[in-house]
Amino acid sequence: MYVLGVIPARYGSTRFPGKPLAKIGSKSLLEWTYFHASQSKTLSELVIATDDTRILEECNRFYAKVILTSTTHPTGTDRIREVLSYYDREALIVVNIQGDEPDIDPKLIDGVVNLKMLHRNWEITTAAIELSKEEWNNPNKVKVVFNQKKQALYFSRSLIPSQMKGEAKVYRHLGIYCYEKKALMNYSNLPKSELEISESLEQLRGLDAGYSIGVYVTDKESLSVDTPEDLEYVTREFQKRGWI
After folding, report:
1. What are the φ/ψ torsions at residue 81 (nearest 5 degrees)?
2. Angle, helices 106-118/29-37, rounded to nearest 10 degrees
3. Which of 19, 14, 4 is nearest to 81 (CA)?
4. What was the pLDDT predicted at 91?
5. Which of 30, 91, 164, 220 is the most buried (most CB within 10 A)?
6. How far apart are CA 93 and CA 44, in angstroms?
């Protein structure tokens, strides 16, 4: 089975323009992400997908494989679908790796991929981590509930489970996805659901259409960068680890 890892990277960002090129020590945020993701044991190939020549030049600088895509894609998922048009392999699994997680754990990638390989009939696998009580009511922390087989039952920005009559663990969804090629290519053809629109969560489109979404549970959360303030925090953390 050929496992293709794709890191979507765009220059434009409302909160942090040029984010992939921002420096953490001597390396860009994108280079750090690529460096750690490339240590995955399950990926057959790792490629960066971008619509900007500045990011293309940066990828060439640190010798990463990169594909220049259309500038019209509304989401990273659509950008990955274009990347797949260059691969004629039918037996292919693709992993969508967030480009703003410079310390992404390669074991997280492996966990999501291995869960997918174990359940080839599941269209998608993703990941989750237990959420602290202080974050339970934060709508920016997307929650997921899943059954004993680790199949997702629902995703929400609200608190799930509700804790109405007893306390249960709450899990935060992590933004990494592993797809069967066919499932990803068909995804944009699925109708938008009321649930997706209500929660503003694209993964609910697949769940509402009957897709099985497996959830790999990890105990290690990656640092992510959404704002310049986040970048300063990550830089301090990398300094503590002796990485820069």
Report:
1. -60, -35
2. 50
3. 4
4. 67
5. 30
6. 10
